[in-house]
Design brief:
- The complex is a heterodimer of chains A (196) and B (201).
- Chain A is of the alpha+beta class.
- In chain A, α1 (13-23) packs antiparallel against α5, α1 crosses α7 (188-195) and α5 packs across α6.
- Chain A is built from seven helices and four strands.
- Chain A has helices spanning 13-23, 67-77, 92-114, 129-140, 153-167, 175-185, 188-195, and strands at residues 3-7, 27-31, 56-59, 62-65.
- A four-stranded mixed β-sheet of chain A has the order 2-1-3-4, with helices on one face.
- Chain B folds into two domains: 2-84 and 192-200, 3-Layer(aba) Sandwich (Glutaredoxin); 94-190, Glutathione S-transferase Yfyf (Class Pi), Chain A, domain 2.
- Chain B starts with a strand and ends with a helix.
- In chain B, α1 (13-22) runs antiparallel to α6, α3 (94-105) runs parallel beside α6 and α6 crosses α7 (177-187).
- Chain B has 201 residues and is an alpha+beta fold.
- Chain B is built from eight helices and four strands; from the N terminus they run βαβββααααααα.
- In chain B, a hairpin with a 2-residue loop joins β3 and β4 (64-67).
- The chains are: A alpha+beta (196), B alpha+beta (201).
- Chains A and B meet through β4, α2, α3 and α4 of A and β4, α2, α3, α4 and α5 of B.
């Protein structure tokens, strides 16, 4: 069964390509266009994502969309080089919490701030962006990688997200985040993603 | 022991429902939060060790901490497989299950929030379009037979039914028969009824 990643250059699907490279599993990419924020581009009818966004992924008969779901699915299935704690392992609860945090809190908070959407406590399911920055900085202060000593999928989904958000000036480059992102991008799989 | 950090009639109410479906013993720790109308109080700083943003829900299971609705639902469903609230890893329905959990956490929360805040009136929000979300939701709910993944009621049904209840109550989603029929079916479950009684205090 071949894994097919619906991919678009320099977009969120890059993180799944990075993860697939880290896992060392064979896959193919299917380049798709999507409707970009600036209004350019169009949805590709071949893309199974409900909004025609990337990433989406098919694996045999399985169809997946949303980065966190794809990461969970891939890291549960491919255990030769573990990229996330398995069900029942110590850090599983933290893994699932932070996988939900990325689409549920981190992304909407940072996007909202960028677009000047006012935050109302209790109304939004997420938190104010400056608080998200505080939480991520505090979490990464004494950790080598997101869940501790080993590089894993959260370093791609959240760590990679931090790296690109800093580049896009959507997050402040603190010393903690500078050291951390330097660590996570110094990897062959990251370079492969950037070239793909 | 499972402890749920809960604020009545908030997002954590759906985890009370989830725990009732699970049929595991648990206790509820009432936790102060700021509600959408500005009422309520902030949780004490000590609560930050449970939830990094001092929000609800959060859960402690024998010292293991979990937060975010989708994270908690995914954790509980996998941790207590006898309740069959998740297709097991390797099951053909696992991919859709995981995708819907993440879709729920992301677009299904952010897009309606943007819509009710009027952010999407004259420009794209970056979260995705409301009409496309609704089309996908309607297609997903219409295909529920009787539940989203088929015969088996899962964590995805708890989260989606809770979202439908909320969005229909605030007229963010129209009360289409496809939504109301599914929501009534879900709300009619004994665990859902017990959860509502507990939530009411």
């Amino acid at each position: 069964m071949t894994i097919t990643l619906y991919h678009s250059l320099q977009t969120r699907s890059g993180s799944i390509l990075w993860l697939l490279e880290e896992l060392g599993v064979p896959y193919e990419t299917k380049p798709v266009t999507f409707r970009r924020f600036d209004g350019t581009g169009a949805k590709d009818p071949a893309n199974p994502h409900p909004h025609g966004k990337v990433p989406a992924l098919t694996d045999g008969g399985d169809t997946l969309f949303e980065s966190s779901a794809i990461a969970l699915y891939l890291t549960d299935k491919h255990r030769t080089k573990p990229m996330g704690p398995a069900a029942g392992e110590k850090d599983r609860a933290q893994y699932l919490s932070w996988l939900a945090y990325r689409p549920g809190v981190m992304e909407p908070a940072l996007i909202s701030r960028r677009l000047d959407f006012a935050h109302v406590n209790g109304m939004m399911g997420w938190a104010p962006a400056d608080e998200v920055e505080d939480v991520l900085n505090a979490h990464l202060t004494d950790r080598t990688y997101f869940l501790g000593d080993d590089f894993g999928a959260l370093d791609i989904l959240i760590g990679g997200g931090i790296h690109f958000m800093i580049q896009a000036k959507m997050m402040a480059e603190t010393d903690v985040l500078k050291d951390y992102t330097a660590r996570i991008i110094d990897r062959p799989a990251f370079r492969k993603m950037m070239a793909a | 022991m499972i402890t749920l950090y809960h604020a009545p009639r908030s997002r954590s109410s759906m985890i009370v429902w989830m725990l009732e479906e699970l049929a595991q013993p648990y206790k509820i720790e009432i936790t102060p939060i700021i509600y959408g109308d500005g009422s309520g109080t902030h949780a004490p700083e000590s609560y930050r060790t449970v939830h990094p943003h001092k929000k609800v829900p959060a859960l402690d299971h024998d010292g293991v901490k979990v937060f975010e609705c989708a994270g908690i639902a995914a954790y509980l469903a996998d941790r207590f497989p006898d309740a069959k609230l998740a297709p097991p890893i390797g099951d053909p329905k696992r991919g859709l299950y995981a995708s819907l959990l993440a879709y729920w956490a992301g677009p299904l929360n952010a897009i309606p929030t943007a819509h009710m805040s009027g952010w999407d009136k004259d420009r794209p929000t970056g979260f995705g379009r409301f009409d496309e979300m609704e089309a996908f939701l309607e297609k997903t709910i219409a295909a529920a037979d009787p539940w989203i993944l088929g015969k088996q009621f899962t964590a995805v049904d708890v989260l989606c039914a809770a979202a439908l209840n909320f969005y229909m109550m605030f007229d963010i989603l129209p009360k289409k028969p496809v939504y109301t029929g599914y929501a009534e079916r879900a709300n009619d479950r004994p665990a859902a009824k017990r959860a509502r009684e507990k939530d009411a205090g």
